[in-house]
Design goal:
Elements lengths: L1 H30 L6 H38 L5 H10 L69 H12 L30 H40 L6 H20 L3 E6 L9 E4 L5 H7 L5 E5 L3 H13 L3 E3 L4 H16 L6 E3 L10 E2 L13 E8 L15 H9 L4 E7 L11 H16 L2 E2 L13 H16 L2
Parallel strand pairs: 1-8, 2-5, 2-7, 3-4, 3-5, 6-9
Antiparallel strand pairs: 7-8
Helix pairs in contact: 1-6, 2-3, 5-6, 5-8
Length: 492
């Protein structure tokens, strides 16, 4: 027994020592902001594997489609020669699901809302009413340029289009679909989009088993270890820096420490971030960005130091918030306290008025969206004044879905999904600074900034309030829509 114990200890030493050495080497490189390019090579390899899987699936689907047409033609009556000829002709055609809005030559991209995305229906957009803007009555997407005759005769058939639009909204509306995971067009070896677990081919089965082993047996333990070390290091460093007296030295130390610590935490997710237009990187003022998940902060803090403003959390996020508050000025508030909101606005103005403070990072949507769209920006941060630095963040959902559905998953469940994904790959665009025009309202300014972010990130620009995720529409809004609907039916 002693001999077996000695052999086991020797083997564990041989295996654990290289693994721990590798982990600390990765942490050291991340803390220095350096990289050997292994993660980018890893992502490029994944792209090739996904492409191989896509081609393999398409071949299997084409065979199934051809076999289906053949069986239908064999079952048809010999007397119906015209029908059998049409079967022979159509057997070489591609499945109808490859077409995109009638264009079979246009490829479907992941997260492309205009060409599929999460939408499963084609709605009559001229009948969709939009929310009020600046107290002006909502209008449809497209004006109904019908006959301008003074006389109008009501027919029951006039309601059918509205009934159809109502049914479409019940099946899928523009709001709730933004709070669900982005639908992929190709299988990423994590889930099967719109398909249950089924056998496709032995090759893909073997690749999936190998990938499962790599993600859960190799990557996940390493990532958990790096995350634990990163959180401990962040807590220790912020506590030490917090003891330094206020001044230029402390601000420089805070910037270096935060970038270093968040670099370590980003390596725990195998993140690959591409920063564009770094000449527009915020230096002070207010930085606004679209919001997908809490790791948005992580992606941005790896390149620059920010002060944060947001809802006070408990648990794991609470630990990070308290650690950050020791070293630099941040604004945490309780969402349900109206008095606290007024205090937040006052503290925000004080923060922006001090040029020595780092830029404050704000997510004006107020909730997480699934990275396919940008929803209504709250006007509060655009009333403060000063320079606004827009930032667009776009994740590549093929490697891992960064969206946090807070109503479905807890923070720990979300971290578990992140730790078992392939990687977190995203692009960050620093956009030119923007200022509010003299006669421009805060709402118009917020919409202008939102439009710029949506255009750069390739996201859908929506006017809907993201808080509809948690609450019902206001009674006044429904009454106005009912009034508009009645006037349309009357022909007014």
């Amino acid at each position: 027994m002693v001999l077996l114990a000695s052999i086991g200890a020797f083997l564990s030493m041989l295996t654990l020592t290289p693994i721990l050495s590798l982990m600390f080497f990765i942490i050291f490189l991340a803390s220095m902001g350096k990289s050997l390019g292994v993660r980018r090579m890893y992502v490029q390899l994944l792209v090739k594997i996904f492409e191989y899987g896509r081609q393999n699936i398409e071949i299997v689907r084409k065979k199934q489609y051809a076999n289906l047409n053949t069986s239908e033609c064999e079952d048809s009556s010999p007397a119906k020669s015209e029908s059998s000829d049409s079967c022979t002709t159509d057997s070489s055609a591609k499945p109808s699901e490859t077409s995109v809005n009638g264009d079979v030559t246009k490829p479907i991209q992941n997260g492309d809302i205009a060409n599929g995305g999460n939408s499963v229906i084609s709605r009559v957009e001229s009948l969709i009413l939009l929310p009020d803007v600046e107290g002006v009555r909502s209008k449809s997407r497209e004006s109904n340029n019908e006959d301008d005759n003074d006389s109008f005769e009501f027919n029951l058939s006039n309601c059918l289009d509205y009934v159809r639009s109502g049914m479409e909204a019940i099946i899928e509306d523009e709001v709730t679909s933004r709070f669900e995971a982005e639908e992929l067009k190709n299988w990423n070896l994590l889930t099967r989009t719109n398909r249950h677990y089924e056998f496709i081919s032995w090759r893909l089965t073997v690749i999936w088993v190998i990938g499962f082993f790599i993600r859960y047996v190799i990557l996940m333990p390493c990532r958990v270890f790096i995350c634990f070390v990163g959180v401990m290091w962040l807590t220790l460093c912020t506590a030490l820096v917090g003891c330094i007296p206020e001044g230029p030295t402390k601000r420089w130390m805070v910037k270096m420490v935060l970038i270093q610590c968040f670099g370590v935490l980003s390596s725990a997710l195998s993140s690959v971030v591409n920063y564009h237009n770094i000449e527009n990187r915020p230096l002070n003022g207010i930085c606004v960005a679209n919001h997908t998940s809490p790791i948005d902060v992580l992606m941005l803090m790896c390149d620059n130091c920010y002060s944060l403003i947001g809802q006070r959390h408990g648990g794991f996020l609470g630990v990070l918030q308290r650690a950050l508050a020791r070293a630099s000025p941040h604004i945490w508030f309780e969402r349900a306290e109206a008095k606290d909101r007024m205090a937040v606005a006052k503290r925000l103005k004080e923060h922006v008025s001090d040029p020595t403070n780092p830029p404050i990072l704000i997510f004006p949507e107020g909730t997480c969206i699934n990275n396919t769209s940008v929803m209504q920006f709250k006007k509060g941060s655009f009333e403060v004044g000063g320079v606004i630095y827009p930032v667009a963040i776009k994740y590549d959902a093929r490697f891992g879905d960064a969206f946090w559905n807070s109503s479905k998953y807890s923070m720990m469940q979300y971290l578990y999904m992140m730790m078992t994904s392939w990687a977190i790959v995203c692009d960050v665009w620093y956009l030119p600074p923007m200022t509010r025009d003299e006669n421009e309202s805060a709402i118009d300014f917020a919409n202008r900034v939102k439009s710029v972010i949506a255009k750069q990130g390739g996201l859908v620009d929506l006017v809907w309030d993201g808080q509809l995720k948690r609450m019902k529409p206001k009674k006044e809004w429904k009454e106005k829509q009912q009034e508009e609907f009645t006037k349309r039916l009357k022909g007014e």
